[in-house]
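Example record for the data management plan.
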Amino acid sequence: MSEEKIYDLTIIGAGPIGLFTAFYAGMRNASVHMIDSMPEVGGQLAALYPDKYIYDVAGFPNIKAKDLVEQLYEQSKTFSPKLSLNESVKNVIQLEDGTFQIDTSGSSYFARSVIITAGAGAFQPRKLKVDRADQFEDRNLHYFVKKLEQFKNRRVLICGGGDSAVDWSLALEPVAKEVILIHRRDKFRAHEHSLSLLQESNVHIKTPYEVGKLVGNDKIEQVMLQEIKGENVHVLDVDDVIVNFGFVTSLGPLKDWGMETSKNAIYVNQQMETSIPGIFAAGDVCAYDGKPRLIATGFGEATIAVNHAKAMIDPKARLHVHSTHLFATAAP
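Corresponding structural encoding:
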């Protein structure tokens, strides 16, 4: 190990929170190594919905996911962190001298502390449980939306009742020929402002309904909607169906590292430290009482984790440093 570089911080996960963690750690003069299993940075924002608008980042009334990722990536490169993509972390072991050994699918690395920013962990979309749904997945049944323009002048049915379903409905309204949103309940779970915009839009809302049958040969041509606890049936001509039922997530190998977990997330204390001293977590991967699952929350958690990791590595370092003071020059 003497020939291997030992980083002050290794960040597991290069999504939005991991990218900001790398930048803030650089501001604290920490050497940083980021590792991610994906072939590109940005996590779910880049992989699942690059054209989706994000509304919970301070300073931006709205910003497309891909643009947020691009700016976070540029910001993270300020201090030239090492970046290892396409490598899955298999295990983290604390050695006798306190150093952490991070074993990945490609190599082994070493760090004085670890911050896990792996989002919701491994994820799979909740599937539409209707006959033949799987046959249409590679055609015009979608669980992810990569580009809005692929739905230009098309009749789009969106299924779901949360923020993603409502946001996609609003985003596609000016692009698609027609947007129909169905939900199995009368009330939606999206933010109040988004619901106000939805009511003012031309999106056709049908509640309480669910998909009863898909009709078509090579692709979906019609969808039969069945009323919940009722007998009404509607048959719609469609060009595309988008399903937004959320995701089934898993911590994967993380749950075997010996950390305390809670509801498929890693439990942390007020210092964002896990039950293993020296391993911290930030973003959707971590849990504590009262936590809101927002990108904005994760940015704040990242600064807490970095500050306490820095204090652990260097007991002489200040725990809290105001950002405007980090590069301040002496007054004339």
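Summary line stored alongside the record: The longest strand covers residues 108-116.
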